Amino acid sequence: MPFACRAGKHPYFGEGMVRPLVIAHRGGAGLWPENTLYAFQRAAAMGVDVLETDMRSTADGVLVLIHDPTVDRTTDGSGPVNRLTLSQLKALDAGYRWSGDGGGSFPFRGQGITVPTVAEVFSAFPAMRINIDIKQARPSLTERLCRTILDFGMAERVMVASFDSRILRGFRRLCPMVATSAGRSEVRLFYALSLLSPRAAWIPSGCYALQVPVSWKGLPVVTRRFLSSARLRNLEVHAWTVNSGLQMQRLLRLGVDGIVTDYPDRFLALLRHAPEPPYQRS
């Protein structure tokens, strides 16, 4: 496939001058139990643009949305996700450990909140944009994910991400019609080349976005130079995970294309009072 990094040309992004994307990290992990239908429903009703989530598989091969390799941090169970069947996973309380006051209370315990499957989320949100971060390398999930995306007609509504660039390269080969973001090694190369010259920065075909931290090990990542390099390649830049209102304001002034946040309510409130960004996606 020829070089085709065209943010704004893939249907996932839309066209024209629009405000930066409000990307609800794990459905809004600061507001509700992360990566649950409960969180996704409320984030969608709030008006976010994208539901961001993480994907693994169960022992019986079902694609499920959960961040950690184990269920210990977010449920009342314990053990690796890939050692539990879907039935066993569904028996766990995915709202059990969420607390908005540092452990003083646990308002979502016993509310029937469970770990969702990819199919359940696609069925519930056929019109929402969904950012899926593949967390599991072995066994590979790329073929199953591609098939599920196509079966549900979500090729224009899903962007696939992963820290592991090898996972993304495999997914791009199997599913070239679905947008992907850059993997960690791809971002590092892009960043290094952008320091030499904005025009030197390179990214593989099929990649439409750079989803990056604001800084990494003390080095600023989201800078005017980095954004300029991305613009020249028609790449979107999404900054993560941004929860400070002051940081959101700074990134808006820089002109980022999206912000990944645990508190989408804060970013939405800020956007209601912010001027239109001085750039176009298309």
Protein model, in words:
By secondary structure, this protein is of the alpha/beta class. Helices cover 29% and strands 17% of the residues. Helix 1 links the parallel strand 1 and strand 2 (50-57). Mean pLDDT is 92; it is low at 1-7 and 278-282.
Short description:
The chain is built from nine helices and eleven strands. The protein is an alpha/beta fold and 282 residues long.
Number of separate strands: 11
Strand-residue proportion: 15-25%
Radius of gyration of CA atoms, rounded to a whole number: 18 Å
Strand order of the largest sheet: 1-2-4-5-6-7-10-11
Shape: globular
Q: What structural class results from the helix and strand content?
A: alpha/beta
Biggest sheet, open or closed, and with what strands and sense? Answer: 8 strands, parallel, barrel
Poorly predicted regions are: 1-7, 278-282
Key descriptive features of the protein:
282 residues, alpha/beta, two-stranded antiparallel ribbon, 9 helices, 11 strands
